[in-house]
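User: Sequence in, structure out. Go.
Assistant: Echoing your sequence, followed by the structure tokens.
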Amino acid sequence: MKNLINWIVGNFERIYIFILFLISFLIVAYLFPGEGNFRYEFQKGQPWLHEDLVAPFDFAIYKLDDDLFSERDEVNKNFKPYFDYNEQIGTQKVDEFKKEFEKKWELYLLNKKEAKNDPVLKKNLVRYNADSVHILYNLTNKLIESIYKNGILEFEEDYEYENQAPFAIEVIKDKVAHEIEYSKAFTLKSAYTFMVNSLNEHKIEGHLNHSIEFIESLHLNKFIEPNLFYNKETSEKVKNEELNSISLTSGIVHEGERIIYKGEVVDEDRFRILESLKMSYLSSLQITANRSLLIFGRLIIVFFVFLIMYLFLLRFRSNVLNSRRKAFFILLMIVSTIAVSSVVHDIGELNIYIIPFVILPLLINTFYDSRLAIFTHIVTILIVGFFAPNPFEFILLQFIAGIVAIIGLKKIQKRAHFLNSALLAVLSYFFIYFGVSIYQEGNINSIEWINFAWFAGNGVLLLLSYPLVYVFERIFKFLSDITLLELADTNQKLLRQLAEKAPGTFQHSMQVANLAEEVVRDIGGNPLLVRTGALYHDIGKLHNPHFFTENQISGINPHDELGYSESAEIIINHVIIGEEMARKAKLPEQIIDFIVTHHGTTKTQYFYRLYKKENPDDQEIDSKFSYPGPKPFSKETAVLMMADSLEAASRSLKIYTEQTLNELTSNIIDNQMKEKQFDNADITLHEIAEAKRIFLAKLQNIYHARIEYPKEN
């Protein structure tokens, strides 16, 4: 039992990584589409690449979506909406017109009688011909009756026609529907216009003019009111019955019947038959398939995808497997992307192209590198391809969009960079999808233009996911270039204090940053990281700035009053104090690494040699004059150690020539290698040699070193 516990403790990191992969594997296997897939791939307008295909069973030939849409559209166009006829309204309005006329006529006769004794009233009174008025009354009465007989439509929000009105409508009278032409029914406006125009036709008879004015004074629009009311319930019921009666099939293929020959072009008819076979096959698969075999196949696919991912990390990115949070982040990104795809697939109403898959490689590239980002992207879309209706098209689109976004944008350092990446991804989707569509269809009209809207939505979501950089940075303690740029701003509090209280150290840090950045940019690594680390590596000197030569302006050296070991302790403490200040300021761990490693486990050589000369028998001399470490453990921290030592030592040279600078560079870096300071860093001898060359060139530029010409005899 004790041995087992010891083994678990000793292999805890490996066990943790194994459990992470196992859990991720199980989640993805569970989310994997439950149904099987059709084994044949085919495209309209392209040759059939498989063997001759015969029908394995009887199946119906389903109509294509476009055909069904056309038939449904035809039903909608020719559908006759239902209206309820209200007979009482017409009768009521005819009676109202009669009463209004009689009331108005009686008033006219009364005024006419009074006008005999009233000269003013007699002068202003309009005379009407009784016979003409009654003729027009009868005419108007018949017009109103005729209008209500045909019907006046009432339009509501429930009933609206698009493009053109229906040819006919169904009018329900006494629970029986009668078809009438739509043009014969009136609207409120057309009914009034019809009545007025009919009356105006009689104006040609002069003696009727005043009589028409009398009729019009009755305000005829008051007697026009809808009596045909849209019956939403019946209309929708009948329309749905007609739509549901549309047959989904247009024929049948019998078992053993040849469907297509190898090499034969998949034309419109063959494409329809193949799509029907695919639908029938998938439908029958859910009933007849061996569920155990489907699950087993699913497990095999997911297992090998994760195995490939693990082997890639083991071979090329072992640092990810050695870090729990890094491995967890990678697997979280993969599983989350697949989970979102599964949800969209199950919902059905959303298109899978709305998911911003490019965010995965962009985030991984931000915190790691492009190679890992692209490989992870490929692994993820290979699995998600099983959720897509057209796997080949989906994988091609996502692969190219991801590659373009990564190649077009090495690192995200500003919001504008994220905008550029989103724009590149969307443009890639547009062009590749357009190319694939016209290649498959051979016709621009057959392109599903709605997908371009999904691609645009994808780009919007990609932009909205920008804050995820900050979220993951805080959760997983990553360090993005965005944060590095913020930290490298010399207006940051610690750097501003360094410039004010220790100006010599600040200038030294700036020079070290320039040297280290140039080397890392050439040999590989993160130039922005090493530059930022260099700016902060000596912040511990803020504690006692005058004890460091670069800050001693007056020529007074406080070390003259101290013993060698005391001076060494003050010098060494700038690393310890620097770490404390950095943690108090909540600087990222990656920046603190530069502070604690920039001297490694080297010694304060000046005080060490003087002390050793006076105390040759002291057994604890090494511990008194050695920095606590640790040694540099990355390429960037190793380069910073070289740059820091070279920049400081170069200030002590009396003569600046190519030879003296070359000797200085070689001696310092060779001594660091001799002391095994770079053993824990992932830097090669070739890269160290290249670093020497770049340091020498940069120092020559700084000090304007020139070749010494031999003197003439």
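User: And one key feature?
Assistant: The mean pLDDT is 86.
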